[in-house]
## 1
Amino acid sequence: MAYTIDRYPDQGSPRLGAMNLHPIAESVPRARRWFRKFIAPYNPACSVDDCALMISELVTNAIRYGRADDPWTVRVEWFREGTSLRVEVHNPGFPANVRLRHPDANDAHGRGLLLVDSIAESWHSGPSRFGGTVVSFVVADAWPS
């Protein structure tokens, strides 16, 4: 199996869903599709397409830069925090120094976090509670108050 989905979080939990994806290119569109499918019942007021785009960028980075000696997965989780939506993407390996890059016009890569920075209310990176690195973003006013 290339992925697992957690559709039924605990009652009262702010976590709305989660998925584990193998670090392969096919996981990027799969993450977009499954996020759209499993966020829909919560009727967010924010742009699900924008969120799916940011998830694509972060899952791509996690696959590209995640490292582990053992087989590993990329974990994506999404949470409701008041009126905001927070999405986390976890990848294995030592906590990376994640930073915004400012690529030249001819650079083929390096724009993912710039895109997240321009769309999300905020973003953060640091050590993951699963080990490795987590990069998260927050979309404000994802639900009416």
Note: The chain is about 25% helix and 30% strand.
## 2
Amino acid sequence: MTNPIEESHKKSGKIPLRIDPELHEVLVTRANKEGRSLNNYLTKLLEDGLQPKNFEDRQFVGQVISGENFDLPSRLVSISGIYYRYLIDNAITAKADAQYAIIEANGNILTLRELK
């Protein structure tokens, strides 16, 4: 016997969505280039967005690091004793007195965003 409370929380899989008509055109064009329906293309984009893309993303993305981990002259940051190159989102240089979140990892290059 099914639980009526659980049954009332089951999702239909349908999501009404309003988007800009220009974005709609771009998405249809990209879906067509991949030989997919728009629904299938959007489902793929959503699924891809939920899963880490690579090993580095699984290991690093979301970690918060302190500005004291930076070697500012060499533009390196130490994570678990290993030095990585980095880019700062929306800034040119890192600050030694700030905290940063790792928002992307691509090989040995980390993209960081200052936490405010």
Note: The chain has two domains: 16-50, 55-115.
## 3
Amino acid sequence: MANQQQESSRPWILEALPLLVVILIAAHVLALVYWIYRVATEKQPQRSKKH
């Protein structure tokens, strides 16, 4: 028991840091995928041929 108490004496932010990093990376990947989707499906303006 005493060993477990000593082990969890690290600040909670250090315990949560790896999870926060993974969440931030996932959010950026989703934003990138969404941005690529928006660019790919955006309507292009009609081009008129001028001779």
Note: The helical segments are 2-7, 12-41.
